[in-house]
Write a structure and sequence with these properties.
FAD/NAD(P)-binding domain, Fumarate Reductase Iron-sulfur Protein, Chain B, domain 2, 5-stranded parallel sheet, about 500 residues, globular, alpha/beta
Length: about 500
């Protein structure tokens, strides 16, 4: 862990600093092997909600940082939706300036400790690493981002940069998920008075209610919120914009710019027979009960949860993986992923699939539920599934699943969690006249500026994209802040 550096002897620290000053050639750097993230052993972690990944030690972080070739035109930066100065923070780690690395990260990213844990670096920044051209493992950018931000937090040295002037202009962010938090941080650094309005009693949206403790500890989320408060962001909980407060009323209170980041919190179901049976949850309800309402600590907390013995989770994304791994921790004797495509088409992170398998999750791919059967009390007891084949590619580029005739069979279950996606909440779009929405209920924006059809109102994250990743939502929030700032300053939109 990063704290290890504080326990080194004076001689060991001096030896370590001298080793950092030793220059390496590109050939020597590229010969270094990528570090492996330390993690809890599968059997132990499956019995509780402790974080799975343990973090790099200082020596591991420096060793990995040495692999960075400091490219003249770093393609990793263009692969990052928030354009972090990746070589800049990594070179500070290599030099042993861990707090400097954290400060460099926060120049462009208000949530580095979150991103270092949950962002799919393997298909973004790391996917663009020059090492791929050499047929070698990319630099572990996500591991290093997590390391630097954890060092800062553990040292109690989080720097709160001063605002760039003090315009006094009030702006609002609706919802407190990653898109809104990024927007708020960027606007606060530019000198605006920012208030984030959240409908729930807990801040951070999907970071709090959707992602389990074993992937993203709530203490990490709280520390990121505290940083935003330190740079001047204000938070208003239990405010349902569109119901208890409207945007017109907010304008009357002096707000001059708005960002809608209310997410996509309405669960999707498959509309098959038996879906209303007792014991059939949406992934939203299941994870919210566990993560936000602490049902895994029942009866200490009074939110109950079904602790099924035979649990089937429908879907193949990160939410499905979070749900099935939660079921394992709640004591499931058999936990299954049921997915209608093959494993190669799964949108979940490779790491999450790997961890789920280590923890004993069974994967039923090319399988789709067609009916849930209940006992006399109305509780689900079985599901009828159908085997699938793969046909031609659909609009997503993945091969379309095709039902195989005569392939149906029954599986015993007592809990089902449906994790096949979410829809945007229609409350805000319906409450703002003139706001343009798609047939799916997402808000239409200019993709370059994130401005809606209404001047002064911007939107981003899942309310625009449907279900997407944390880092893409953050990229939306950053672009919206840049665009709103130019608008408020009377400057033309950047193109």
């Amino acid at each position: 862990m990063p704290a290890d550096i504080q326990e080194m002897s004076a001689d060991r620290k001096q030896e370590w600093r001298e080793s950092l000053r030793a220059g390496l050639s590109a050939k020597e750097r590229s010969a270094l092997a990528r570090v492996k993230m330390p993690e809890l052993e599968a059997a132990a972690r499956a019995r509780g909600f402790c974080e799975v990944n343990s973090g790099l030690s200082p020596e591991m972080a420096v060793q990995e940082a040495k692999r960075c070739l400091d490219c003249a035109s770093p393609s990793c930066v263009s692969g990052c939706p928030v354009n972090i100065n990746i070589p800049g923070f990594i070179k500070r780690i290599e030099a042993g300036d861990f707090l400097g690395a954290a400060r460099k990260l926060k120049e462009t990213n208000a949530l580095p400790a979150v991103c270092g844990r949950v962002c799919p670096q393997e298909i973004q920044c790391e996917a663009h690493c020059v090492y791929h051209k050499m047929k070698k493992a990319p630099v572990a950018i996500g591991y290093l981002e997590r390391f630097a931000s954890d060092c800062e937090r553990q040292a109690g040295a989080a720097a709160a940069p001063g605002a760039n002037g003090n315009s006094g202009v009030r702006v609002a962010a609706i919802g407190s998920g990653p898109a809104s938090l990024t927007f708020a941080g960027a606007m606060a650094r530019l000198g605006y008075r920012v208030t984030v309005f959240e409908a729930l009693h807990e801040l951070a949206g999907v970071l709090s209610y959707g992602i389990p403790e074993f992937r993203l500890p709530k203490s990490i989320v709280r520390s990121e919120i505290a940083y935003l408060q330190a740079i001047g962001v204000e938070f208003a909980r239990n405010v349902v914009v569109g119901k208890t407060l409207t945007i017109e009323e907010m304008k009357a209170r002096g707000f001059q710019g708005f960002f809608i980041g209310s997410g996509a919190g309405l669960p999707k179901f498959m509309h098959i027979p038996g879906e209303n049976a007792i014991g059939v949850y949406s992934s939203n309800e299941y994870l919210t009960r566990v993560n936000l309402m602490k049902a895994y600590q029942f009866p200490e907390f009074d939110t109950p949860i079904a602790r099924g013995r035979r649990v089937a989770v429908i879907g193949g994304g990160n939410t499905a993986m979070d749900s099935v791994r939660t079921a394992v921790r709640l004591g499931a004797e058999k936990a299954m992923i049921v997915y209608r495509r093959s494993e190669q088409e799964m949108p979940a992170r490779i790491e999450e699939v790997h961890h789920a398998k280590e923890e004993g999750v069974e994967f039923l791919t090319l399988t789709n539920p067609v009916e849930y059967l209940s006992d006399r009390s109305g509780r689900v007891k079985q599901m009828r599934v159908q085997k699938m084949g793969l046909g031609a590619a659909d609009d997503s580029g993945r091969r379309r699943p095709v039902a195989l005739a005569g392939s149906e069979y029954l599986i015993d279950v007592d809990t089902v969690v449906v994790g096949v996606g979410t829809d945007p909440n229609p409350l805000i779009p319906r409450s703002v006249p003139g706001l343009e929405v798609t047939k799916w209920g997402t808000i239409v924006v200019d993709e370059e500026t994130m401005q809606t059809a209404l001047p002064g109102i911007y939107a981003g994250g899942d309310i625009v994209r449907g279900g997407a990743t944390v880092i893409l939502a953050m990229g939306d929030g950053k672009r919206a802040a840049e665009s709103l700032h130019r608008s408020l300053q009377g400057e033309p939109a950047a193109r």
